[in-house]
Amino acid sequence: MNGNSNDASSSVHDSRVGALSGAIESNDDIESTAERIIESVPVELKADARKLVMLATGFKGPTPPPAVLEEYERLVPGSAKRFLDDYFQQKSAEADHRRGLQAKQLEYNREAQQMAHEARIRWMETVNDSRKRGQRFALTVALVVAGAGIIALLKDQATAAAVIIGSGIASSIAAMLLGHFKGKQKNSESTDGV
Q1: Distance (Å) of CA 35 to CA 22, 41, 43, 126
Q2: Looking at per-residue confidence, does 3 or 56 come out higher?
Q3: Are 17 and 10 in contact (CB under 8 A)?
């Protein structure tokens, strides 16, 4: 029977303590909260409640409230200053680390831009080399066709010479025009994408 009455009274006590507990803003609130808790306890348990009052405090944020720092300083002189010095040193180290990461990121971005620029230059050089190679090949073909046409003329084959030279000229003009229009089309696509 004794166990049941203690269980009932402790559950009433727990619910009242839960209702009274909450955020305590300063050290002055601690004592008043303790008194409110003791006052809420049933009369038959009040004598025992005064013997033991348990309070837990905490704080949010990077530094404790000034009242807590004052209490630290009172118990261990110089501790509040050490605490704040450590805090500011840590914040300074974090800021230095963050600035270092940002500087590395900027350096990597610059390197990436430089690499992209160099790749574009290499690509343009490759395209120019390809064009020069194509021009040399076209010149060679034109000289061969012209030579074949001249040989045909020397052998009194005027019709064959006209066909050879005419087809050579026509294919050269067609190749130049096709290359010119393809180049314009690529340039317009690249400027549209930018």
Answers
A1: 14, 10, 14, 87
A2: 56
A3: no
Measure the CA–CA gap between 28 and 19, rounded to whole angstroms. 19
Q: Do the beta carbons of residue 142 and residue 176 sit within 8 Å?
A: no
Per-residue three-class SS string for 28-60: HHHHHHHHHHHHHCCHHHHHHHHHCCCCCCCCC
Q: What is the C-alpha separation between 151 and 161, in angstroms, rounded? A: 8
State the amino acid at position 137 in one-letter form: F
Retrieve residue 67's tokens.
């009242």
Global model pTM greater than 0.90 = no
3-state secondary structure of 157: coil
Residue 23 region by backbone torsions, left for phi larger than 0, else alpha for psi between -120 and 50, else beta: beta
User: Model confidence over 69-116: pLDDT tens digits?
Assistant: 888 888 889 988 888 888 889 999 999 999 999 999 999 999 999 999
